Amino acid sequence: EVQLVASGGGLVQPGGSLRLSCVASGFTFSHYAMSWVRQAPGKGLEWASGISGSGGSPHYADSVKGRFTISRDNSKNTLYLQMNSLRAEDTAVYYCAKDRRVSSTYDFDYWGQGTLVTVSS
Amino acid sequence: EVVLTQSPATLSLSPGERATLSCRASQSVSNYLAWYQQKPGQAPRLLIYDASNRATGIPARFSGSGSGTDFSLIISSLEPEDFAIYYCQQRFFSPPTFGGGSKVEIK
What we know:
heterodimer; A: 121 residues; mainly beta; four-stranded antiparallel β-sheet; B: 107 residues
C-alpha cells in the first residue's frame, strides 16, 4: 500500500524558515518524480515544486522560486521542501504528491495527508 | 502559465442526478488533463487522467471527455459520497496548473 506521510509544518514568523519532510512507502521511491502542492485556507490547489526520481531537474512555481528548495534522499525514501524567507501568502496546507507514472507525468495518483504551514507574527 | 477556468462554481443536485462539470484551458493542452475530487479535510484523489482514463479504483459512473481547450467531467448518477469539490489540472505546460474548482453540493 502506497503511503506518504508529511511532517514539519508549524507556525513561523515572516522571514523565517521551515523544512517539510515526506516519508514514502509502498512503492519504489527512486523511480518516481514527486511534487509539493499547496492549498491556502479555503482556496484551491497550487503546484509549488517538483523533482525527478533521481533528484535532478527540480522545478518551481514562480511564486516560490529563489526561496524554496526541493530535494530528496532516495536512501531514506524521503522528500523535502526547504522554505526560506517565508511570507504570509505562503500560509497553506502542503501536500506531497507522487507522479502517476515512472516517466514524469506531473499528474498525481497518491497524496500525503498534508502539513499546515502558518506564517504569522 | 495556462489558466484553467472551471464552471459552474457550484452545482446543486440531488442523489441520483447527473452532474456535468466543465474545464476550459486558456490554450490547448492536448489531452493532458486530470480531474481530482477533494472532500473537506482530505487530500485530493485522482479520478481521471489524460482527459478520459479512470484512475485505479474509480467507479464507472465517473467519466471524462474533451481535448484541446474544452473538457468535461460527468458523474452519471450521484452517490452521497460524490458531494465534494472537483478540480481539473493540466500537465502539458510547465508549471502544471489547477482550475479553481467546482463544488457539487446536495440540493
